[in-house]
Design goal:
The protein is mainly α. Among the domains are: 117 residues; 101 residues, no CATH class. The chain contains 20 helices and no strands. The longest helix is centred in the C-terminal third of the chain and has 40 residues. The radius of gyration is 38 Å and the shape is elongated.
């Protein structure tokens, strides 16, 4: 992703530039005045020494600060315009810094052990900051800019790859078996079974003509000649309807019992039968690799990204209505339930360490390639706007320190 265009210079940076340059100009004027007045009194020699050394210090630091971001006076002096010339290396260095200091699993786990993520989230959800808070606005804007700046396809690919790898690493057959067993034990499967029976009855009604055609085709010539095939079809359809009705109405029906036994057996096989678990894993792998599933994951990520952007740009809307009430209730629960908070904190720590282990290299490449995608002017202006105010202090300090050194040397020269 490329980002161009000039960045607006912050007012504080402009003010510091004027101050540093004004101080340098003032030292030049003081030098000219003291040079002309030096014959009148020896004290002007000290003033001249201070102003002269201050000019040298101020000019040297002006050159050093300017050389970081551009060629001083537009002259192509070697080893100047350091940031634009080394943009790619800066991106790589920043990415490696993140990898070395933040994206190592043990470092992430050690730093997060002191974080009470659940408590902080609970307090924020229970009492969201008031609209207009600087921290809230700044965090929302930063989050929105980060989502916009990163390449959506690469970031989406990382999210999709992460979901896919987690699905592949999770053996779902035992989970399905446990869910099915728990549903049977609590009777939660009965409404589903009743729905299946009703669906079967509706499907039989809708496909009655197909059933009659099948009976007619498979009946012998004598049955068709005598019309008994129609009678046989009527009896078959009526029998199936009665069977489905009896199974649906009678909870002790032998066929329903057989279905219950089959579900019990399926729950056991899903948990303990190696062949069944292998078949389920094969079906899961085929489903994940299916292009339709990949398109669904792409759409899921894009919807999540758009929702996050809307939330970041209008965080107040998230805390309104029923969703806001639910969020506040969740926040209160997180504060009042230490066991739940501890579970969430432990999960967050493990998830963060797992992300650092699995996707640290991908995040590093994403940061590096994002910086590489910016043009030199964008990188220069962003860095200068971020640290330029402190660099102007260096110019001011250089001017004052240089003048002080010149004054001390002049004093030593007269004393010795």
């Amino acid at each position: 992703m490329r980002s161009g265009g000039s960045q607006t210079v912050p007012a504080a940076l402009r003010k510091m530039r004027v101050l540093a340059t004004g101080l340098l100009v003032g030292m030049a004027a003081l030098y000219l005045v003291s040079r002309g007045l030096q014959p009148l009194h020896p004290a002007w020699g000290y003033v001249r020494a201070f102003a002269e050394a201050a000019m040298v210090g101020g000019l040297a630091d002006w050159f050093a600060v300017t050389a970081l971001f551009r060629h001083p006076l537009g002259l192509p002096i070697p080893h100047t315009a350091i940031v634009p010339r080394n943009k790619d290396r800066i991106g790589d260095t920043l990415a490696n810094f993140l990898r070395t200091n933040f994206l190592i699993p043990r470092v992430v786990a050690r730093r997060m052990v002191r974080l009470d993520v659940a408590g902080a989230a609970g307090r924020w959800l229970a009492q969201p900051p008031q609209e207009g808070g600087r921290i809230r606005r700044g965090a929302s804007r930063l989050f929105a800019e980060m989502l916009t700046a990163f390449d959506p396809q690469r970031l989406g690919g990382m999210v999709k790859a992460g979901i896919g790898s987690r699905l592949r690493a999770t053996e779902i057959a035992p989970i399905l078996g446990q869910l099915l067993k728990a549903s049977i034990a609590e009777g939660r499967h009965l409404p589903l079974l009743d729905s299946v029976l009703r669906w079967a009855a509706s499907a039989l009604d809708a496909n009655e003509a197909i059933v009659r055609a099948m009976v007619h085709e498979r009946a012998g010539a004598i049955l068709r000649w005598t019309g008994l095939d129609e009678t046989l079809a009527d009896r078959l359809i009526d029998g199936l309807h009665k069977l489905l009705h009896d199974v649906a109405e009678d909870r002790d029906h032998p066929l329903r019992q057989k279905i219950e036994e089959g579900l019990d057996r399926l729950a056991w096989d899903l948990q303990y039968d190696p062949d069944m678990r292998a078949r389920v894993e094969a079906m899961k792998a085929e489903l994940i690799a299916n292009p339709a599933m990949q398109r669904w994951l792409d759409g899921l990520w894009e919807q999540a990204r758009e929702a996050l952007l809307r939330m970041a740009r209008d965080p107040q809307a998230v805390t309104a209505g029923r969703l806001g009430d639910a969020m506040r209730q969740l926040g209160q629960t997180l504060q009042d339930n230490p066991r739940l908070a501890a579970t969430i904190n432990r999960f967050v720590r493990r998830a963060a360490a797992g992300i650092a282990a699995d996707y640290g290299d991908g995040i590093v490449r994403l940061v590096s390639e994002t910086v590489r995608g910016w043009d030199a002017d964008t990188v220069t202006s962003r860095l200068e706007n971020a640290v330029g105010r402190d660099l102007q202090y260096i110019r001011i300090n250089g001017t004052l320190v240089g003048g002080s050194v010149g004054l001390i040397l002049h004093l030593l020269d007269h004393l010795l």
